[in-house]
From TrEMBL:
This is Alcohol dehydrogenase. PANTHER family: QUINONE OXIDOREDUCTASE PIG3-RELATED, ZN2+-BINDING DEHYDROGENASE. CDD domains: ETR_like. It comes from the Bacteria.
């Protein structure tokens, strides 16, 4: 089978190769999933560059999620004898996605049965391949801040997949949004998705415009995945006591120096204004959340996607052999839909 392998930590263009490797065997309680599509997330590129929240042993197969079908059961994962249909509605040929399984950029991946979730029939391969990471992150960011009718949320990189899903939730839950984007061309899309205010850093001074907006409507909640100066400007604009949740560091994307991953936090905003900043990391959320709670939240998110209350932007299918093209696209400004490696 084909697998994308990162030889070692480094720039993706230098260290990624597509190799032929044996199909893995599912062990006891495990499921073999034939992967149809796997997204290229910003987090994957952080892993390859060696500055993510976990580091796999290298050589490593990147990939945080996928859409596929059940290809085989390991001993004990099926109802009866090996290879038979399994528990939790899993059957051979069932469309599934994986949760918390790393190494999805390969034709077959092995997962514990508990990490394999059925995918509703109505969902496209593109949506199924992106069903967990972005929608669940958007959901947990919004619910974690307790956003409801009348609230304001400031968000950066509003045109990202997560940002667009947050906008879906804003329409559903009735909160208003200030959306920071870096390109003029992204503004109309954000408005079409129901963004209340859009700040375009290509045309506007961010601190100045945020100061105007927050003078009119004091805002105390923000989410940021850009970090650096942008994250600091957003924190400073919040009302006293306000809270910024940092969940990404896109402005430092190509840096491999951990020292560059900082946010120049204004001490006066924290000391005198009582503003605070905390992080969010989905893997940590899974590691610290009781499994039944995680299942419930996942169920809510999948139901919202199934009834189109959250719409995952359509990805762009790219054959796995062209993984370097997919990586370049993932980092290109205005790349649109997320690159999906297809097998
Ligand atoms: N903490 C977690 O557990 C977690 C989970 C999921 C995602 N994330 C993070 O969420 C962020 C968004 O991910 P995604 O998959 O939704 O993104 P995506 O769909 O790939 O889109 C990336 C977006 O970020 C914008 N962007 C890229 N570099 C930027 C920069 N230097 N300054 C300002 N904007 C920039 C792009 O703007 P253009 O349209 O102008 O190119 C685009 O709108 C990433 O940082 C990712 O790591 C974190």
């Amino acid at each position: 089978m084909r697998a994308v392998v990162a030889r070692e930590v480094g720039e993706p263009g230098d260290v990624l190769t597509v190799r032929r490797v044996p199909v893995p065997e599912p062990g006891p309680g495990q499921v073999l999933v034939r992967v149809d599509a796997a997204p290229v997330h910003a987090g994957d590129l952080h892993v390859i560059r060696g500055r993510y929240g976990y580091a796999p042993p290298f050589p490593a197969v990147p990939g945080l999620e996928c859409a596929g079908t059940v290809a085989a059961f390991g001993p004990g994962a099926g109802d009866g004898e090996d290879g038979e249909d399994g528990e939790d509605g899993l059957r051979l040929g069932q469309r599934v996605t994986t949760v918390g399984v790393t190494g999805t950029w390969q034709e077959f991946v092995v997962a514990d049965a508990a990490q394999v979730l059925p995918v509703p029939d109505s969902l496209s391969v593109s949506t199924a391949a992106q069903l967990i990471v972005s929608p669940l992150t958007a959901w947990l960011l919004v619910t974690g801040l307790g956003l409801g009718p009348g609230d304001w949320l400031v968000q950066t990189a509003a045109g990202s997949t997560v940002g667009q899903l947050v906008l879906d939730l804003s329409r559903r839950l009735g909160f208003r949004t200030v959306n920071v984007v870096r390109r003029r061309a992204a503004v109309d899309r954000i408005r079409a998705l129901g963004g209340t205010e859009v700040v375009c850093t290509e045309d506007e001074d961010l601190p100045e415009r945020l100061a105007q907006l927050t003078a009119a409507h004091p805002m105390s909640k923000a989410i940021d995945c850009v970090a650096g100066r942008v994250g600091a400007d957003v924190l400073r604009a919040l009302a006293p006591g306000g809270e910024l949740v940092v969940y990404g560091a896109l402005s430092t994307h190509r840096q491999t120096d951990p020292a560059m991953l900082g946010i120049p936090v204004p001490a006066d905003a924290i000391i005198f204004g009582g503003r605070s900043m905390r992080g969010f990391f989905l893997s940590r959320w899974f590691a610290t959340t009781p499994p039944q709670v995680a299942r419930r939240e996942l169920g809510e998110v999948i139901a919202l996607v199934e009834k189109s209350a959250m719409t995952v932007p359509e990805g762009q299918a790219i054959p796995v052999e062209r993984v370097l093209k997919a990586v370049r696209l993932a980092e290109a400004p205005g790349h649109g839909g997320k690159p999906l490696l297809v097998f």
